[in-house]
């Protein structure tokens, strides 16, 4: 097992990884920008190294500074968390070259599954259902031709990224050229990869993802699915496990295909395969995220597993001693709400000083957060303040518990989306479990 791990991230995920390390007896190294000098993850770590000024490109995305921090602190491994460099195959390659273990898949596996076009080829090879799509688009003329072949509406998507960036919905030929140019620009800016491709656009889909885990000894586990349909502009807002749209039979069938694909491609780490479900209940593979997900706590709640500890143990070469349950037996129901520093009406980020902070508690309530009262939320990074997670025997009880916990959550001095979450948990589609990726959009249009 590693003696010391550097966490190449900030905020709640950095603290989440530190907690896993502490329970495994591993020392932690935090890295931080000048804007994060008083951040909680810096105070929680055993050691901390400043890696640059506030802009992420000069700190959390600056590979030489992060690897240098690992070298001067004698860290044996680097955990990238999510976002930033977590799906950067070149960073994983350089870690290996410098003798530092990257806690995640190999650079080769990351390229095979992290690039969306290549991942579609893998999915097709192993029999995962796919939406009709294209290869990497050469230019706007190629995009127009492929859009006509597939049939409007289509969506242009970045090949090397996610989180809603580099995505444009196109409903007619007249929209293709400008959408292609803006998607390429956003992909280049956000992911240093301008490649984009086309995919058939489903008007009212559900977003469902499957959690996988693999060690270096041929062990592969599918750990059930998460429902992530409650999102706005491709950004997830509420997640839950299991999905109210899934059946045990479908969970088992899809899980077996995923298990074979992961095993035969040599993938060794945590990973998440994302699908959309159309109006008829059919699943289609979208992409794979080769890292720990923001919403991983809901899977932890219903499986009883510490996914981050298992990810670290797999990276250290341990043979994971988990039961071969297909599908994994999930206990109860879990829901996660992302608490963001943002205006609840316009969704504009709202940085500033937190004058008061109280997080909820009680039976079945978990809060993963990186903030505290008296801390100033910087304007340079993602607006996520905390993740509020509840677990209960049934979905109805989980919703009731989440409502109670949201009522207890106090964040003073800045605006947050707590009131939006309360409204979402009263919506008919959410209560009935029939939500789609358009539910929040519909609710906002109703005022």
Automatic annotation (TrEMBL):
Organism for this UniProt entry: Pendulispora albinea
Domain ATP-grasp positions: 120-316
Domain Biotin carboxylation: 1-445
UniProt-listed SMART domains: Biotin_carb_C
Signal peptide range in chain numbering: none
Enzyme class label: ligase
Catalytic reaction list: N(6)-biotinyl-L-lysyl-[protein] + hydrogencarbonate + ATP = N(6)-carboxybiotinyl-L-lysyl-[protein] + ADP + phosphate + H(+)
Keywords: ATP-binding, Biotin, Fatty acid biosynthesis, Fatty acid metabolism, Ligase, Lipid biosynthesis, Lipid metabolism, Magnesium, Metal-binding, Nucleotide-binding
Transmembrane stretches, start-end: none
The protein's annotated pathway: Lipid metabolism; malonyl-CoA biosynthesis; malonyl-CoA from acetyl-CoA: step 1/1
Known EC number: 6.3.4.14
Repeat in keyword set: no
Protein known as: Biotin carboxylase
Pfam families found in the cross-reference section: Biotin_carb_C, Biotin_carb_N, CPSase_L_D2
GO molecular function terms attached to this record: biotin carboxylase activity
Subunit annotation: Acetyl-CoA carboxylase is a heterohexamer of biotin carboxyl carrier protein, biotin carboxylase and the two subunits of carboxyl transferase in a 2:2 complex.
UniProt-listed PANTHER family: BIOTIN CARBOXYLASE, CHLOROPLASTIC (PTHR48095:SF2), PYRUVATE CARBOXYLASE SUBUNIT A (PTHR48095)
Its job: This protein is a component of the acetyl coenzyme A carboxylase complex; first, biotin carboxylase catalyzes the carboxylation of the carrier protein and then the transcarboxylase transfers the carboxyl group to form malonyl-CoA.
């Amino acid at each position: 097992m590693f003696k010391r791990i550097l966490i190449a991230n900030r905020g709640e995920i950095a603290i989440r990884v530190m907690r896993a390390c502490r329970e495994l007896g591993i020392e932690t190294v935090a890295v931080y920008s000048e804007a994060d000098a008083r951040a909680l993850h810096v105070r929680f770590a055993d050691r901390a190294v400043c890696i640059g000024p506030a802009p992420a490109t000069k700190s959390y995305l600056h590979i030489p500074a992060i690897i240098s921090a690992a070298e001067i602190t004698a860290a044996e491994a680097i955990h990238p968390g999510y976002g930033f460099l977590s799906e950067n195959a070149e960073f994983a390659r350089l870690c290996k070259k410098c003798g530092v273990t990257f806690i995640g898949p190999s650079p080769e596996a990351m390229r095979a599954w992290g690039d969306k076009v290549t991942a579609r080829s893998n999915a097709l090879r192993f029999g995962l259902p796919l939406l009709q799509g294209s290869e990497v688009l050469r230019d706007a003329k190629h995009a127009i031709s492929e859009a006509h072949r597939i049939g409007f509406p289509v969506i242009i998507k970045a090949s090397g990224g996610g989180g809603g960036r580099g995505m444009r919905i196109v409903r007619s030929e007249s929209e293709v050229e400008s959408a292609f140019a803006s998607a390429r620009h956003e992909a280049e800016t956000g992911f240093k990869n301008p490649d984009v491709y086309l995919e058939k656009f489903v008007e009212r889909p559900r977003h469902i993802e499957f959690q996988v885990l693999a060690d270096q000894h041929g062990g592969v586990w599918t750990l059930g699915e998460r429902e992530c349909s409650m999102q706005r502009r491709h950004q997830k807002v509420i997640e839950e496990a299991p999905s109210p749209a899934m059946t045990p039979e479908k969970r088992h069938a899809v899980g077996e295909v995923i298990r074979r694909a992961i095993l035969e491609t040599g993938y060794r780490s945590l990973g998440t395969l994302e699908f959309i479900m159309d109006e008829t209940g059919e699943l289609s593979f979208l992409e794979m995220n080769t890292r720990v997900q923001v919403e991983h706590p809901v899977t932890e709640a219903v499986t009883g597993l510490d996914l981050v500890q298992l990810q670290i143990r797999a990276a250290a070469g341990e043979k994971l001693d988990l039961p071969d349950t297909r599908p994994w037996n999930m206990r109860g129901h879990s829901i996660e709400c992302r608490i963001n520093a943002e205006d609840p009406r316009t969704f504009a980020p709202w940085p500033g000083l937190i004058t008061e902070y109280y997080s909820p508690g009680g039976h079945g309530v978990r809060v993963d957060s990186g903030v505290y009262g008296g801390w100033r939320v910087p304007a340079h990074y993602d607006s996520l303040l905390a993740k509020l997670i509840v677990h209960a025997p049934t979905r109805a009880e989980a919703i009731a518990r989440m409502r109670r916990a949201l009522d207890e959550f106090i964040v003073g001095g800045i605006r947050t989306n707590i009131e939006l979450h309360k409204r979402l948990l009263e919506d008919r589609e959410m209560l009935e479990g029939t939500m789609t990726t358009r539910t929040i959009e519909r609710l906002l249009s109703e005022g």
